[in-house]
Amino acid sequence: MSLGYNTTSLPSRALLTLLRFTSLNSLAAPLINSICILRLSAIGDVTHVIPVVLSLQEQLPGVKITWVIGKIEAKLVGDLPGIEFIVFDKKAGRKGYAELRRQMQRRKFDALLHMQVAFRANLAAACIPAKARIGYDKARSKDLHGLFINRRIKPAAQQHVRDCLASFLEPLGLDAAPPCWQIPLSESDHEFASEQLATDRRNLVISPCASHTLRNWPAERYAQLADHAIQKHGMKVILVGSPAPFEAEYCAAIETAMKEKAHNICGKDTLKQLTALMTHADLVVAPDTGPAHIASAVGTGVLGLFAASNPYRSGPYNSLEWCVNRYPEALEKFTGKTVEQARWGAKAEFEGAMELITVSDATEMLDRWVEVNPVSKTESGVR
Q: Shortest CA distance to 250 belongs to which of 208, 211, 307?
């Protein structure tokens, strides 16, 4: 095997080190027949794994891919073609790990892409037998992640989460996954979306709730933004959210505070129906939350509302230019650090952080978006 070095001139110890380094950092792609992906959650991160799956299928035709995934997340991507999904129930405790271990009996993957650093995911990784175990670089590791891997992705400063996950292919000798998405939808999903959308004006979907409540913008400000969208731009406003009582109450509070009428379907759609709705909508408004990444993945613009987290790390990948970004102000106000001084990925999840985003910040961004996108999807024939 030629390594591109004159090995005859190397001392024996150096030669062994070189051989070990090469074998640990560039698995020959033709030798890869089976790959297991471990990414359990959350919705946004799982959305970012889709390009990795598609790229694997393109770069390694015929490779067998297994994805160990969370229960809710499987409802979004569990029908991706050519993938075996193993659903891991995070709430099942020891029984969940025992079931995963049972399903992994008599298996040996050529590679594991261990894409989650949480301790619970690390324990799940221990149940998955694999020759090459790809994980995060040291700077992004935590919860004993390094004990469950034998190779690492390259360190990268100030990298978006999507690009980080895309780089998991590089230690396998493959190219990083390009930003391409595919989320299978049924005809009934599209029909549901059509029933909610107007055909004579733009459709604005507001998904106001994040899983971390400190990332949420005040309901009365959403109401003012929605009224502006209707009064100035003639938009139809659709409120969406999960069936969780908190989200239902939040959407109801927005609806109550509005002067105009919104179409509130919070808790009345599935993840697939939501994806179809966002596919055909003109614009989505959301904080740092999974639906923002779904919308970005299906090619719909996202007006992101960011103060508690950095949009350049976790914002909607294809809509960073449309994000209201008060993260630098929030970080400095609540931690005393600038973006440059803080650890990349540091949160500013404090009471009052999201209030740094004014209604004017959001309405001005909406006005800009309308100016750049003067034709609706209906008028352009995209829908």
A: 208
